[in-house]
Amino acid sequence: MSERVVIQPKQYASGSVLFKQGDASRDVYILQGGKLGIYVDEVEVAIITEKGSFVGESAALLEEPRNATCIVLMDSVVTDLPGKYLDNILQQHAGIASQLIKVLAKRLRMTTKNFTSMQKNVIHLKKEMNKMRKLPEKTGTYDVITDLLVEMNYVTESEIERARKKHEAMLATGVDKNIPNILVEMGIITMYQMIEVMKVQREIGS
User: For the whole model, what pTM was predicted?
Assistant: First the structure.
């Protein structure tokens, strides 16, 4: 049985550096009170003041160099989770593990939302460019869905072609299944990705 790790909040004076960009350190920090600044290439990218915020977890979990610098902007109280004991800490402190999972899930959701928004803007722009160039606009569900899958980098044209051939073979046996479902069955895309594409399709009014 692993030795129990005791963790306690610490006082950090204004100007203290918790970690620097490029460092190989693995500690994770939880802000209990105060203000932290996050900098990338000496440019401020975020100010953290919310109690319970995690800082530095990406480098610790992925075992990669720090992608930013974290500086204490005012006297603050921070809980330091030593990287070398992180696995034990997460096993022994269910509350911290649960909180970290929620933080990671929230960040993943925001990343996905931002990515989808960016893809929608690209698709809108391409549609407008096609109008200016007087190219015919595709309106069929079959073409729109497959085009979106390619535009969002979920599949390649060759994978779409494989799915189309399987679709035609299934039609010959009396089975009519749409291309996205075939791609899911073939393991090329996930159900989650298919749902994201369908959301984008509805939002751009295709």
Answer: 0.51
